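In the design runs reported in the main text, the only information available to the sequence generator was the tokenized backbone. The following block is the verbatim input for one such run; it is reproduced so that readers can re-run the procedure and compare outputs position by position.
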């Protein structure tokens, strides 16, 4: 897995805006949560779909950015959480131990 990092609200908004060209995946991770570490390990081993970009948001150090993402996409904030964004909308979200790479593959194959 190649993790990309975003540190600003304007950059995050730009990624969401660019999701008309390709899906964008956000993973909201808490480095202090054991369940989040399990979910991240699952994604670390995932062979992400070509053409998609995955962004890691640390919900502790980037709390305002994490909140902005939830508000912008109109989703309930959870952590850990994975969000798939396409055409500037969240088309899939999963949290905690429900974060499964095979489900991400299924969602991305339908695009």
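Verbatim output:
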């Amino acid at each position: 897995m190649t993790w990309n990092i975003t540190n600003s609200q304007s950059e995050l908004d730009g990624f969401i805006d660019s999701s008309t060209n390709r899906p964008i995946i956000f993973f909201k991770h808490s480095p202090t949560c054991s369940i989040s570490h399990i979910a991240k390990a699952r994604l670390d081993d995932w062979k992400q779909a070509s053409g998609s970009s995955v962004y890691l948001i640390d919900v502790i150090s980037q709390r305002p950015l994490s909140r902005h993402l939830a508000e912008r996409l109109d989703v309930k904030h959870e952590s850990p959480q994975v969000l798939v964004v396409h055409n500037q909308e969240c088309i899939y979200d999963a949290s905690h131990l429900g974060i499964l790479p095979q489900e991400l593959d299924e969602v991305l194959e339908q695009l």
